[in-house]
Amino acid sequence: MEIKEYAGDLAEKYPAIKDVIEKRETLWINPNVIPFHMIDGLCQLVVSDEDIEDAGARLDRFAPFIKRCFPETEKTNGLIESPLRAIPKMQEELSNSVSGRQDQTDLTSSISGGQDQAGRRSFGIPGTLMLKMDSHLAIAGSVKARGGIYEVLKHAEDLAISEGKITVGDNYEKFDSNEMRDFLSGYTMQVGSTGNLGLSIGIMSAFLGFKVKVHMSCDAKQWKKDMLRSKGVEVIEYEDDYSKAVAEGRRNSDQDPKSHFVDDEQSLDLFLGYAVAAKRLKEQLDDINITVDQAHPLIVYIPAGVGGAPGGVGYGLKRVFGDDVHVFYTEPVECPSLLAGFASGLYEKANVSDFGLSCNTHADGLACASPSGLVTRLCGNMVSGDMTIDDARLYDYMRMLMDTEDIRIEPSSCASFAGPVLFHATENGANYRRARGMTDEIMENATHICWATGGALVPEEIWQQYLETYI
Ligand SMILES: *Cc1c(COP(=O)(O)O)cnc(C)c1O
Does any ligand 1 atom lie closer than 6 A to the CB of residue 142? Predict the structure, then answer.
């Protein structure tokens, strides 16, 4: 594959981009980050605090309906929210992993820690490592239960209000009625997806009575298609990649005035559904007395595909914690589309093929060759950086988490564990900390959150395949 000139130029200027082209795991530090208060006002023109509040209030209105229809949300009172859990044994294992493995030569040039006689390195992960378990979110079993379900509910509400079927003051349990399902069955929801977004939109839309068409890219796993079809969803398969599935879905939907397209590349509603996570996370941290301020930084690592989920969650976190939160995205070595969009300044026009990369990855949820324009533009001055991870390590981390903490999350999700490792094991990570006064003492008080983005719906036989996968 030919490398575009702009990509070659970037590689000469930035060693991390050279790593990208040479398919080495790397930590790219975003040179365009500026203090949050300087972009706050401008950002609020696009997505304001009120917009996020409004989205949260909408989810609260639907909570009685969700609770009634999905008993697994009983304990959260109809909110679709996930546990935040400390994972100390995983933290210890991860700390040892770089020093312990033989096949880490790729990292040698960028390791800042000391080396022992055997050439092994140790660095440790100071502070507290936590897992945000969106892998176990109700209904959709992935982070898509935030954005995807939010957009479906919002569309159902818009239609019901405009046709006089409901008012904002009503009890939304009304949505669980034959009358409402008959009404919504006159409308269609469509979406393009690598799998999990299709699951969340498909499950929720079908439940409300909508007709649903899910346009699946070649990366989508068979079991996800089967599960959707079993719920009455029409699944349309493409032999092409994700962008094609989205383009076809959009075109199909535009031809039908009664069809709504959930646009993963530019939807503000999806983004808002994700952003609601931030304030709820702050409440969870408050509940366990974890402070976030300059002396107690919060560092968050979120796997990224097209960028919608990590974009919305990360943006929400910046609005709540400002410069005290450091948001990193994590992507497969063969498919760092957000990194490409940010680093090139080409936003949605960047494509990983420009860097000679294939977009082929076992991380099906992250296989998007070009990033979201909305996210790369809105978050370009606030995202701290981006990490890349080898596919082989996704399975290693998946097994490691099961062995140490008895938690299962799907391989795509495990990209988040590249975060604390590369943040501490690379020269770029050390430089980042130095530039921001994040001393060893401060790092002892840091909270790291790896965002687990999916897993709960994975069938048992697929887990067995994952467990036996070594690359
Ligand atoms: C969708 C997804 C992501 C990333 O979300 P994007 O909005 O595509 O960036 C990460 N992990 C899993 C498991 C996903 O399904």
Answer: yes
Which tokens hold the place of 453? 């983005």
Is the Cβ–Cβ distance between 349 and 370 less than 8 Å? yes
d(CA 148, CA 66): 14
Q: Is 381 helix (H, G, I), strand (E, B) or coil?
A: coil
- By CB atoms closer than 10 A (0-12, 13-18, 19+), residue 288 is exposed
Residue whose CB lies within 8 A of the most ligand 1 atoms, among 453, 457, 458, 466, for a mutation test: 453
Spatial contact of 321 and 330, defined as CB atoms under 8 Å apart:
no
CA distances from 454 to 141, 180, 203, 405 (A): 6, 31, 15, 16
Q: Tell me, what's the pLDDT at 122? A: 53
d(CA 313, CA 363): 20
pLDDT in tens, 242-297: 888 899 999 999 999 999 999 998 999 999 999 999 999 999 999 999 999 999 99
Q: Is 335 close to ligand 1, i.e. is its CB under 6 Å away?
A: no
Residue nearest atom 2 of ligand 1, based on CA coordinates: 365
This prediction has a pTM of 0.95
Decide whether any atom of ligand 1 lies within 6 Å of the 303 Cβ. yes
Pairing outcome for strands 385-389 and 325-332: parallel
Query: Which pLDDT belongs to residue 117?
Result: 45
3-state helix, strand and coil shares in percent for the chain, rounded to the nearest 5: 55, 15, 30
Sign of CA dihedral 377, 150, 146, 199: negative
Quote the pLDDT of residue 242: 85
Measured between alpha carbons, how far is 366 from 411 in angstroms, rounded to an integer? 10
Instruction: Please check whether residue 262 is in contact with residue 289, taking contact to mean a CB–CB distance below 8 angstroms.
Output: no
Residues of the chain with pLDDT under 50: 99-121
Ligand 1 centroid – CA 144 distance (Å) = 7
Q: Are 97 and 125 in contact (CB under 8 A)?
A: no
| 8-state DSSP, 229 | H
The alpha helices in 255-326, defined as continuous H runs, are 268-275, 277-287, 308-321
Distances (CA, A) of 90 to 70, 226, 275, 444, 453: 32, 33, 27, 17, 17
